[in-house]
Amino acid sequence: MRVLVYPHDLAIGGSQLNAIEIAAAMRPAGVEPLVVGRTGALVERIEELGLEFLETPDPGRRPSARVAASVRRLVDERGLDLLHGYEWPPTLELVAAGGLRGRPPVVSTVMSMAVAPFVPHDVHLVVGTEQIAATERARGRDRVHVIEPPVDLAHNVHPGDEAVAAQRARHGLTGDRPLVVVVSRLADQLKLEGLLHAMTLAADLAATDDAFDLLVVGDGPARDRVTEGAEAANRRAERRVVVLAGELRDPRPAYAVADVCLGMGGSALRALAFAKPLVVQGESGFFLPLSEETADVFSWQGWYGTGADHELGVAALREALVPLLRDPALRERRAALGRRLVERCSVEAAAQQQLRIYEEALVSGPGAVRHAADSGRAAAQLVRYKVARKSARLVGRGAAEDFNAVPVAAGGTTARDPRPAPTRPRDPVLWYAGVSWEGVRGTDHRLVDEVLREREVIWVDPPKPTGRPWRPGSLRHRVTRPLPGLTRISTPVLPGVTRPVMRELALLWSARGVRAALAGLGTAPQVVLASCSEPVLRRHPDLPSVHYATDDVVAAAPLWGVSPRLLHRWRESNLRGAGTVLAVSSHLAGLLRREGKTPVVLPNGFAGAQGHDVAAVDLDLPQPVAAVVGQLNERIDLGCLEEVRDQGMGLLVVGPAYFATKQARARFDRLVASPGVHWTGRVPSEDLPGYLAAADVGLSPYADTAFNRSCSPLKTLDYLAAGLPVATTAVATDPAGSPFVLPAHDAPGLALRAAELAHAGTGPDEIRRSVAGHDWASRARALLVELDRADKGTS
Prior knowledge:
The protein is α/β, with parallel strands linked by helices and about 800 residues long.
């Protein structure tokens, strides 16, 4: 099979490397590739792989009639069987070369974040993510394939200690600070924002224990702005924290020298090939580390994402990066995970997939009528696109350089760019959440994760103040798709939302943004659910509505620094607007009971039982060991933990500490500094089973407060699911009614209960069986029943 391979250009870049390396990998299967294009840095790689290369004429404006004519001559001279273009300009030139008959057939690979609408539908389209493929199928394409950006695992290997040492010496990287590496094209679209955020963070942390050096490898049209950003960061840090290496023909030493890599797309995957921990960069403040929890996200939407606001980027990067900088063991675990994942993205696997696509294209060529119709429609759309770009330049608005400027993962919610059609049989649930999607993964998140198996969800973030209201577009709503079946709406608002007038304006603006987003989606929700404190149900008087109270928000007012009267008024508004009321505990259900409305109790669940094969973390603690897991704050009765320590048990404290007062924080610090106490701080969720396996009993030492009396403790169920008995204060209810949860009325009583349970010797399997049917999947099924009842007007 003789195939012409036509990359977009031959500068250093992910899509171009993919084209060349897959072409070379297909030769053992009988494919004879001919690479064409304008000469560039990657010609050396083409020659290294033993591929034939022919230079095309200067295209000028694209698509180019000159290039199409030259390809037509090659088809006749070489007897080419198939033409393969990468990105839309080469694709259109190859379609033109095929003429009215559409022969030879054309395959188009688009590794941009969205597909141009004028790529004809009769070509076989290859995209890089399942999310983009779903979008294109919904637009009527019936020849869509997915090949994740591949990595040449044989080529992308450690170049040796000498090369790494030379890389460090060349750029003066001789300090003992962790090194963060970015290998990227310096482009305004997609790349520049994240690079500037990384430089800002490097300067912010320069004088702290979390200081790091940043090595930026690459070149491109944004070189001057990147240079300005690096110089500004270095001046502010009063030393060199950002190093610009320029373009490297062989970037392997840069990947090899990194402690952490930052990147997107093919660069992210090459970092994984070098077994480096990865933080994925996107746009609008998106930074997310690769971990067990986020792997599915990247599998769906690709190695890229869109955040809620550009101004949140530095904070998001700090949250993603600092734990990796502080913990070498965490870096090793994340690196090993990445290396396992990247095995599926080998060039050899991609070549096998591409060969099957070629074979299909050869036997499923379009009829002349379809080809003419598709080509005519594509030509008309191309003309509209060109006119729109020219008009934008004439009125002084910048024109986006390609379709990375409107990525599918960032939404695409206009009538010209519809979202994928629902794959689930029911209309979606409109879910006003109590936290933003990237916030604490509590009740909302865990239920939605399970509900998505049955129903689409439109998740609405609480309104969040933007950092710079004067920036054009900073208050515009955003629509993203973090997971299959999940659409997220974010509405930035003006600062000052704690003030009465600004608060009401924020609610009105948020409501407007949600209405506009729903109109753009063209979706009619089945039911609206509010688990937030804001009065949102009144916005949808024609929809069946559910209010799910996951906390006593009025009792939480002092913790949140909000007026109790305001939260009471908001809660009453949601209660009046709700056809169905759910509560997370019996105590809270009693508080919410109103005339004609009896709340249904829907407690929290657990994520999943742990098996016997979990290796316990080795701890130097007295035996037996009592563990408390979760956020440490004023909700916890520190006196209970002090009593457990004083009884001579080992005390394991797992989780971050956030205390509002200096006195409480000082008391906590004294506790964890005591002999027989081990505090881990925040740990990755994948490490939690190992800590629980090292314990003999779990603790739920909640203080007796109005807020705690209405809660449904997540930690109690998580202990039981791990096979641990639980000692708890009487205020913390047990939603499972397990016999292995023993309450106490004071701190000495809880310490005695903990010792009693630790020495009881109950088998973990017996404890796990006591919470059967109380997992999140079961809770989600119960919620779906209530949503259906609300939809039908029954209770």
